[in-house]
Amino acid sequence: MPSFKVLKGTGRANVSRFSFETFDLESSRECGLKSSEASSPPEDSAEAAAKNPLDELEELVRLRLLEAERRAEELEREAYQKGYEQGQRDGYAFGASAVEKVRERLDTLATSLEQMHQQVLREYRHWLLEAALTLSRHLLTAAVGINPKVLESLVDHILEQMDRSQAITIVLHPNDRDLLEKHGVLERWLSPPPLGQSPFRVTVDSSIQRGGCRVESALQEIDALVETRLENLREVLFSHAS
């Protein structure tokens, strides 16, 4: 007995007979190829489908990064060159300014030194002259003690200015007299004078400083003492220094 129950049924349906058709292998192959060609996409579409959008994005990003890096290097080089050139200009300007300041300071210093030189001369000229005169006195005294020609030349020059028709007396320091006598100068002076000239006479005075003398006659008197000669020199020097 069947295990199912028919609830609703129909009459006998038209039934057709089933049978296998004849299968042609060549036709089947052609149909398969046509079906494959129809179902496969075009070659270009396949290649386009094969490309990954993420790969294209990655390549684009890489190219942009390379371009940005190249541009950054260019900007860095430009900035360095501009900075170098600006540094040169600033350095030259700073150096020129420093040189100008140094020149101004040197000019100021030179002016002050010149003024100081004049001031020193004004303040110390008298002292310098007195020191020079004092030194001259000592040098003259020392020279007379070594070389009698110093005093001999002085007396000969004075005698040329004297009136030789009058008797002449020469007053010397005792040591100067001995020195002149030792070197034969007195012998020449005291020898008989030429016709028409009066004889010489030599006396001594210990108050006279060595290197000086007095020459006297009835008509003339010449003071050639060291003090007198230095005083005359002082007056000349101080008159030019004022």
What's the name of the CATH homologous superfamily of the domain at 148-241?
ATP synthase, E subunit, C-terminal
* Total number of helices: 7
CATH topology of the domain at 148-241: hypothetical protein PF0899 fold
Assess the beta-strand content as a share of residues.
Answer: 5-15%
Residue share in helices? Answer: 55-70%
The chain-level structural class is: alpha+beta
The total beta strand count reads: 4
What is the overall pLDDT average? 75
List the helices and strands in order: HHHHEHHEEEH
Strand order of the largest sheet: 2-1-3-4
Secondary-structure arrangement, i.e. CATH architecture of the domain at 148-241 = 2-Layer Sandwich
Q: List unreliable stretches of 5+ residues.
A: 1-10
Using the alpha-carbon principal axes, give the shape.
rod-shaped
**CATH class term of the domain at 148-241:** Alpha Beta
What's the N-to-C terminus distance? 171 Å
Please give the largest β-sheet.
Answer: 4 strands, mixed
What is the radius of gyration?
Answer: 69 Å
Can you offer a commentary on this structure?
Helices cover 67% and strands 7% of the residues. The chain is an alpha+beta fold. A hairpin with a 4-residue loop joins strand 3 and strand 4 (221-224). The longest helix is centred in the middle third of the chain and has 94 residues, at 53-146.
Descriptive labels:
242 residues; alpha+beta; hypothetical protein PF0899 fold; 4-stranded mixed beta sheet; 67% helix
